[in-house]
């Protein structure tokens, strides 16, 4: 015969855990790369962009309160996720290291081709990343791009981690590095916004690389239904073409601030 007091205690404990979980799942803290348009960027002390708009819309449709947190450089965003100071990062690359503290969505947010940016007239007609070996390159500190890019970068002692897209392009223009690897769209936008078409060119592009959304493991464990529902709603938005539309709209909005004709 089951001891009545033990049974009651178990029921009360289970109820308390469920109540705590429900309370923990009614709010989410999100942050992102502060300079990666059109997906996300810092503006007036907060974050904006296609990934931010999409994520906020989905979470609000799930009745969550959304706190958008601008915490500083990209490496600090990742550190905050690792230490539980934020719950969600939209539109980033999967990597084995990141999967030690993040749970990535099954549905990709978007494709995000990666390009090798060089000084105009250099590294013409290269066909593979391996042709860059032995030259001095850079990536944005904290960035991951997926394979085969990450594998190549990891084998190159001449590749530097430089904070921020501005610093990377400055180093390239000053002949302190020979190439800079970053997302195709964000790099092209920077070149267009700063009228660098006569100075900087694309030597090589690696296509079909995806970016995903990610929850911290702590949040995903407490709120698995939110993770599943987010994935389902993201899939719906993609099938309706709304993710692509948001990327184009925010790309145009970001470029508009530079008054480009």
Produce the secondary structure layout.
Elements: H1 4-24, E1 27-30, E2 35-36, E3 40-43, E4 46-48, H2 50-61, E5 65-68, H3 74-82, E6 88-92, E7 102-111, E8 114-119, E9 137-140, H4 149-154, E10 159-162, H5 165-173, E11 179-183, H6 184-193, E12 200-206, E13 210-216, H7 217-222, H8 224-239, H9 242-256
Parallel strand pairs: 1-5, 9-10, 9-11
Antiparallel strand pairs: 2-3, 3-4, 6-13, 7-13, 8-11, 8-12
Helix pairs in contact: 2-8, 2-9
Question: Can you describe what's shown?
Answer:
Strands 10-9-11-8-12 form a five-stranded mixed β-sheet. A three-stranded antiparallel β-sheet has the order 2-3-4. Strands 6-13-7 form a three-stranded antiparallel β-sheet, with helices on both faces. It has helices at 4-24, 50-61, 74-82, 149-154, 165-173, 184-193, 217-222, 224-239, 242-256, and strands at 27-30, 35-36, 40-43, 46-48, 65-68, 88-92, 102-111, 114-119, 137-140, 159-162, 179-183, 200-206, 210-216. By secondary structure, it is α/β, with parallel strands linked by helices. The protein starts with a helix and ends in a 5-residue tail after the last helix. The longest helix is centred in the first third of the chain and has 21 residues, at 4-24. The chain folds into two domains: 4-111 and 210-256, 3-Layer(aba) Sandwich (D-Maltodextrin-Binding Protein, domain 2); 114-206, Periplasmic binding protein-like II (D-Maltodextrin-Binding Protein, domain 2, 3-Layer(aba) Sandwich), CATH 3.40.190. It has nine helices and 13 strands. 40% of the residues lie in helices and 25% in strands. Strand 3 (40-43) and strand 4 (46-48) form a beta hairpin.
